[in-house]
Amino acid sequence: MRRDRQHGRVTLADIAQHTGVSKVTVSYVLNDRETALVKISEGTRARVRAAATELGYHPNALARALTRCSTDTLTLVMQSPNVFRGGSGFMNELLHGVVEAVNRLSFDLMLHTKQVPDGDAETRALTDGRSDGCLLLRDRDDPLAASLAKATHPFVLLFARTCSAPGAWFVDTDNILGGRLAAKHLLTLGHRRILFIGGPDGSVAAQDRQLGFSAALTEAGVSPNAYGTVRMNYGGTGAGELAHLMNTVSPADRPTALFAWSDDVAVAAMETLRRECGFHVPGDVSVIGFDGTKAVGEQGCVPRLTSVRQPIDTIAGRAAELLIARVRGDTPTETQLIFAPELLVRDSCALRRD
């Protein structure tokens, strides 16, 4: 029997030789080409399928994709591999939502985390035929969306709504409302010295949450910028900045509450307050996060983190569904979705004592 010399795999020609039919007939049968199958007898179909099983034939996925002009695969495109640092609860729930959706709709998923400084090179890599479309988890003003739009490659923004491609499809949370919810909760508890811990400079989510937070404080007559800019990135990078502030500001001026732009950062902040500053949460400092992940819920951390919850897995799943619809040429009624966040009150915030 002749086999593919490079890979040692059984080919369509092998099955054709084994059954005494043409290679085209074998291809029609194994690819379920309905219009052609009506001209092929049931007996021939059965012989071809039995021979494929007997010989151990496995279809070449790349060849089939080229024939169909589709791979039934999506690519999840990250801004940076740093999002996987620290066992992120956000990433766990995002991946769960995407994977559930693509599996339900018979698609597969690839991750793109490679740092590509050349935008054109990145677009070429994402449009080389390995996947049918991209879920973009990217920073504000990132040029990739516009580049993909120019290349007519399907994409949907995930946890973002602003980009360089007007009219882009997206699924996001109302982050400004979420920031307001966090600020109002701390204000209700009597806090007036409140620090916002921001994220990366280009983070759409972090900036919008700060906008809502600052607006609510300003409306209450509280300065939202009393402590300048303090940032912590994925996995708690930048914790030294927080420790320095809390250890050098006098007790009369020190923040009594922190609002962190994400749950992962909030947990890292609580560790910093305990280990580097000797503060108790929430006795000395109240802390509130954003995401509402299960990782910081009932058994996730001590104390249980009060947080603004966004439905991460639902948002991720809906984005994947929209992208698959776009790949299939469908146009859903709603292509720009915004979910409302909600406040989850747990144990990490307390009434102001001074």
Brief write-up:
This protein has 354 residues and is α/β, with parallel strands linked by helices. It has helices at 12-19, 23-30, 34-37, 42-55, 61-68, 89-104, 119-126, 144-150, 175-188, 204-219, 239-248, 263-275, 312-327; strands at 73-78, 108-112, 133-137, 155-158, 170-173, 194-198, 230-231, 257-260, 286-291, 306-309, 336-339, 342-344.
- The tally of beta strands, per DSSP, is 12
- Name the CATH superfamily assignment of the largest domain: Response regulator
Number of helices: 13
Domains, number: 3
Radius of gyration: 26 Å
Lateral strand order in the biggest sheet: 2-1-3-4-5-11
The coarse silhouette is elongated
Can you give a write-up of this model?
By secondary structure, the protein is of the alpha/beta class. The chain has 3 domains: 12-59, Orthogonal Bundle (434 Repressor (Amino-terminal Domain)), CATH 1.10.260; 73-174 and 312-338, Rossmann fold; 175-311, Response regulator (Rossmann fold), CATH 3.40.50.2300. It is built from 13 helices and 12 strands. The strands form 2 sheets. It has a 6-stranded parallel beta sheet, with helices on both faces. A 6-stranded mixed beta sheet has the order 7-6-8-9-10-12, sandwiched between helices.
